[in-house]
User: What shape does this take?
Amino acid sequence: MEMFDLSVIWALIIGFGVIMYVVMDGFDLGLGILYPFAPDEDARDVMMNSVAPVWDGNETWLVLGGAGLLGAFPLVYSVFLPALYIGVFLMLAGLIFRGVAFEFRFKSRRNRRWWNRAFCWGSAVAAFAQGAVVGAYIQGFAVKDFAYVGGALDWLTPFTLLTGLGLMTGYALLGATWLILKSEGHVQAWAYRIAPALLVAVLVVFAIISLWTPFVNPDVWARWFDRIQLIWVFPTLAMASAAWLWSAVHRRQEGQPFVATLGMFIFTYLGLVASKWPVIVPPDYTIWDAASAPESQLFLLIGVLFVIPIVLAYTAWTYWVFRGKVKVGEGYH
Assistant: This one.
């Protein structure tokens, strides 16, 4: 294994796990954010039924990414957990409320409105916390001698508030395009109506964050222009995906809007990674500084190489089995 850099391999594995979680759990979080604005209770049934068979499997990638970070890059845990403890707690609490709402909403009649709220607020809080964590990663951490030396609320700044709201808007767009793909009739018509407005909101937030980032982290600005041939490819492809999405919605395509939205997320994510690589604990610590012993990385890698194909296989099988439209009055009960 000396010819392979295990730290780079693990960075790629964890990066893959993170983007898989974002795009796969993002649309059901987005549906939760859109829940209060649905046209009626039938639409809410369709929204929840469209993700009920797959939502818990989507979170497998969150577990994989978290466990991989702990084993392969322990410095990330030793810095991120004290720096982002409250944000991570909010994210997990939101996911718990969202998950419980899936199970109880269909069983409860008298208190259904409260489970609707749990689904909505759990999704919104989890999405906001994830976006704020991304913003904190962009702006960096106060680290000295491989330990976090900042305060418990240093992660919460105007910039991270914006990134939190931005990810909520992005997830809502992903949820709307998923609903276009999975629904029909008045539910699909409503999703078509809201998708363009959500796209405009996402682009506005993306533009503000892009202009604000150099003032939050000057190192990112330098990287943007030092590596202009590479880094600017990703925002260009993200904007091309946005144009494709706009066109597909107005042409009333069903599958293309969701694929285009995935493209926006993936290319934006790759742009973020390229802006920070190989730094994993901003502002200074690289993946090699944060890595565990090569023996530990190799031991874990052998297991992960068996697990990932299995996860991909059962995920693909689940989506295949539950393909097709979700109709009013049918689905998870």
User: Anything to note?
Assistant: Residues 6-321 form a domain with the Formate dehydrogenase/DMSO reductase fold fold (CATH 1.20.1630). The CA atoms of residues 240 and 264 lie 8 Å apart.
